[in-house]
């Protein structure tokens, strides 16, 4: 893929890039190599250090196509219509211009709710739980967590083939995530007879966009989607968590910089943010600064600069260890997610748009 600069591309495309750079959680690379691929590098690092294991010399762009299936799954949460890629039967890493993705994103940002716009729904409306965020200001934290756990259970079970597979209709998936005695969620609550995709469409359609790519692996894409949610849950623009080591902060750094050898050790969730009206503060909080040393997937300490990234890498390793072992959802995965990743603070508050 050819790298470009803002000066070398048409004005219309530069507008697209500016919007795309403001839209990500932890950054993904995207069309035109416009971002540092934080999500993909975190996933690659977690793969390297997990029991799955990949070659420590791999890079995001240089990894084999079968490893990129994990990256495609991780990127899916930001691109659930697969509009960042052009279709090829022998390539899953063929980036598109991104113009269709942008139009869908802008429609979500500027327009009314549209159940046919999956990109808009995942960034601005009811599917913000794809990013560990609340669907709207004021959403209760246990409600947000229940939606997150619904998606994680479905995707994880697909990834280990635990009673759910790609040919199943979306609306027929029996998984139910309970909030309380009166409220629970199923996929059928979010995918209906009139949504895109529909409740009668297959999970393959949902997770792979009916791709032409011959090497597609829904198991890897599904666990990649799980990794994205876990990673985002430690991103400052997505959640506020208890800081367990405030004594390691650099004095006067506005709670963003830690002394050498330390990083943000984060505990229970205090708030699931909502993307609406966060503006540029969201991207600023989750962006890899150009002046920082490059991330090295073989060296976890290289992630220490970005708030939450080191813990995202570590939790990714643990999740992949469960996946590689084929551990059942009820055999420890669910409890680990509830206790170690999505534990709620006793003082957790309804969703807000702070960063």
**What is the residue-averaged pLDDT?**
90
Order of helices and strands: HHHHHHEEHHEEHHH
Question: What is the radius of gyration?
Answer: 19 Å
Q: What is the terminal separation in angstroms?
A: 34 Å
Q: List how many beta strands DSSP finds.
A: 4
> What is the strand arrangement across the widest sheet?
1-2
Major beta sheet summary: 2 strands, antiparallel
Total of helices: 11
β-sheet strand percentage: under 5%
| Overall 3D form | globular
Helices and strands: which structural class?
mainly alpha
Unreliable segments of 5+ consecutive residues: 1-24
Helix content: 25-40%
List keywords for this structure.
355 residues, two-stranded antiparallel sheet, 5% strand
Structure overview:
It is a single chain. The chain is mainly alpha-helical and 355 residues long. The chain is built from 11 helices and 4 strands; from the N terminus they run ααααααββααββααα. The chain has a domain at 39-97 and 131-235 and 311-341. It has helices at residues 11-23, 38-49, 65-76, 99-110, 118-124, 141-159, 203-208, 218-232, 280-285, 309-325, 333-341; strands spanning 177-178, 184-185, 239-243, 266-272. The strands form 2 sheets. It has a two-stranded antiparallel ribbon. The chain has a two-stranded antiparallel sheet with strand order 3-4. α2 packs across α10, α6 runs antiparallel to α8 (218-232) and α8 (218-232) runs antiparallel to α10 (309-325).
SSE order and pairing:
Blueprint: H1 11-23, H2 38-49, H3 65-76, H4 99-110, H5 118-124, H6 141-159, E1 177-178, E2 184-185, H7 203-208, H8 218-232, E3 239-243, E4 266-272, H9 280-285, H10 309-325, H11 333-341
Antiparallel strand pairs: 1-2, 3-4
Helix pairs in contact: 2-3, 2-10, 3-8, 4-5, 6-8, 8-10
């Amino acid at each position: 893929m050819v790298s470009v600069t803002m000066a070398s591309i048409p004005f219309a495309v530069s507008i697209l890039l500016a919007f795309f750079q403001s839209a990500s959680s932890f950054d993904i690379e995207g069309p035109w190599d416009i971002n540092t691929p934080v999500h993909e590098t975190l996933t690659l690092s977690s793969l390297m250090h997990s029991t799955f294991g990949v070659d420590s010399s791999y890079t995001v762009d240089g990894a084999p196509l079968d490893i990129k299936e994990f990256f495609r799954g991780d990127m899916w949460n930001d691109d659930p219509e697969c509009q960042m890629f052009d279709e090829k039967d022998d390539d899953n890493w063929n980036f598109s211009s991104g113009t269709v993705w942008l139009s869908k994103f802008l429609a979500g940002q500027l327009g009314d709710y549209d159940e046919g716009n999956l990109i808009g729904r995942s960034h601005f409306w009811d599917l913000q739980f794809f990013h560990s965020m609340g669907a709207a200001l004021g959403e209760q934290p246990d409600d947000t967590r229940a939606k997150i756990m619904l998606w994680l259970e479905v995707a994880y079970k697909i990834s280990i083939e635990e009673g759910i597979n790609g040919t199943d209709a979306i609306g027929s998936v029996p998984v139910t995530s309970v909030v309380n005695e009166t409220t629970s969620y199923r996929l059928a609550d979010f995918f209906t007879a009139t949504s895109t995709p529909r409740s009668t469409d297959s999970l393959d359609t949902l997770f792979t966009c009916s791709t032409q790519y011959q090497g597609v692996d829904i198991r890897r894409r599904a666990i990649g989607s799980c990794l994205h949610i876990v990673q985002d849950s430690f991103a400052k623009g997505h959640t506020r968590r208890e800081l367990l080591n405030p004594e390691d902060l650099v004095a006067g750094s506005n709670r963003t910089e830690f002394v050498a050898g330390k990083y943000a050790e984060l505990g229970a969730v205090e708030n699931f943010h909502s993307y609406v009206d966060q503006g540029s503060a969201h991207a600023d909080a989750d962006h890899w600064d150009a002046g920082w040393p490059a991330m090295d997937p073989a060296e976890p300490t290289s992630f220490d600069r970005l708030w939450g990234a080191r813990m995202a890498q570590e939790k990714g390793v643990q999740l992949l260890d469960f996946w590689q072992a084929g551990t059942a959802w009820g055999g420890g995965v669910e409890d680990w997610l509830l206790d170690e990743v999505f534990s709620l603070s006793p003082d957790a508050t309804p969703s807000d748009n702070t960063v």
